[in-house]
Amino acid sequence: AFLPGLDKVIHEIEQADMAWGVVTNKFARFTEPLLKTMNLRSRMAVCISGDSAAFPKPHPAPMQMALEQLGLPAQAVVYLGDDRRDVISGFHAGCFTMAIAMTPVELGPLPHDWGADALATNASEIMALLGLNS
Fold first, then answer.
1. CB-facing half-sphere around the CA of 112: CA atoms within 13 A
2. 123 vs 21, 24, 89, CA distance in Å?
3. Dist CA 103 CA 22 (whole Å)
4. What is the pLDDT of residues 70-104, one digit of tens each?
5. Could you identify which of 37, 62, 79, 101 might form a hypothetical disulfide with 53, taking C-beta atoms 3.0 to 4.6 angstroms apart as the criterion?
6. What is the pLDDT of residues 108-119, one digit of tens each?
7. What confidence score (pLDDT) does residue 102 get?
8. Cis before residue 58, ω within 30 degrees of 0?
């Protein structure tokens, strides 16, 4: 699902000339058409689907693959995630992790308990944590 206000966050990231992408557990046959329909795929620096890496999140392999494709060290990347598996994957890949608590979560640990480096509850907080205009 597209998070409320994420279109503005993506716009600001692009205006700041920052690379961005998607790492998802959804298979490419679902991910690619959706991102193309949303006019996002051609704007991404990287897109890793659930069938791209040897192991799915929460394993760090998908994030490590994204880092390799970006040519960036983990320390230069902020990984935003709306699921605990995102935070675990990003953490074990060595990235700064930001839990996104903008949508209802399934039963289980709440976003503030996921162990992320930061927590954002709306698009403005995401932009502030990324040092972007809001």
1. 1
2. 17, 20, 22
3. 18
4. 999 999 999 999 889 999 999 999 999 999 886 55
5. 62
6. 666 778 889 999
7. 67
8. yes
Strands 118-120 and 96-100 turn out to be: parallel
Q: How many CA atoms lie within 13 A of 25 on its CB side?
A: 13
Sequence-separated (6 or more) residues with CB below 8 Å from residue 110:
101
Using alpha carbons only, give the angle 39, 41, 42 rounded to the nearest 5 degrees. Answer: 85
Residue 96 near residue 74, CB atoms below 8 Å: no
Report yes or no: 74 and 95 within 8 Å, Cβ to Cβ.
yes
Superfamily of structural domain 6-130: HAD superfamily/HAD-like (3.40.50.1000)
Enumerate the domain spans of the chain. 6-130
